[in-house]
Amino acid sequence: MNCSLLLHRFALALILPPLTALHAANPQPKPSVPSRDDAGWLHEKGTLIFHDAFAREEDGNLAKAIGNGWNSATADRVPQIKMADLDGGILKIASASKEAGHQAHIHHEAGFTDGGAVVRFRFPGLTKGESLQLGFVDRETTGIHAGHLCYAVLSAGSIMLWDWKTGVGNLEIRKRRQPYLDRKEPLPADLDVLLKTKQLTVPWKADTEWHELVLVTEGDEMRLSLDGKLVAHHRSAGFAHPMKRWFSFLVPSTVWIDDVKIWKVK
Question: What does the DSSP assignment read for 6-50?
Fold first, then answer.
């Protein structure tokens, strides 16, 4: 290497700082991570309209056996099978999905436009593929299958936020979609695209620990937090339904619920 080239490189080294120094002086912006304390929002802006710590014994196996205003849409189908057991302050749900022809559906009066629920839950690890679907229903609204409005679904590997009202629960969409499901054919492209806008799925690894879940709707947005951390949020028209009359659990196998609070913001 000739002397002039060495001198040129030495001069550049004096003028230009190393790349690591440039990165330190001008760090790359980090992707924005949404931050939301929805438990705090409910406490600050809302009114507690229901609380149950399940510190009692249930009365039999029928629809109202859990007590404190809870009702089961499936218990009377199989009155000989106990699907909800209050044990040591825990609501232990074990769905007789096969016998009842439907997963356990347990609900309570709610009544809000904006607000939500705080739930302490656990997958006990008693059955394979434990999952929990929870959300809001309005049986007084026509044009929706069984009044299903919107849900969060927690399964082994993911969490999904799901608008049923303007998606799969809409009777016109349901009528158009069902023949393709029956024939096990792909949906038409326009219907497939539409339905994909009605849900959001994020990865999550289920375990058998206790967790505090906060599920809220505010305007056309649904948000879900676990243990104080926002993990999923999505906007869809059905989330803005003006009256969430019921808060409900749908359980295909087993799940334990330790505490439920329902809050109304408006």
Answer: HHHHHHHHHHSPPHHHHHHHSPPPPPP-----HHHHHHHH-EEEE
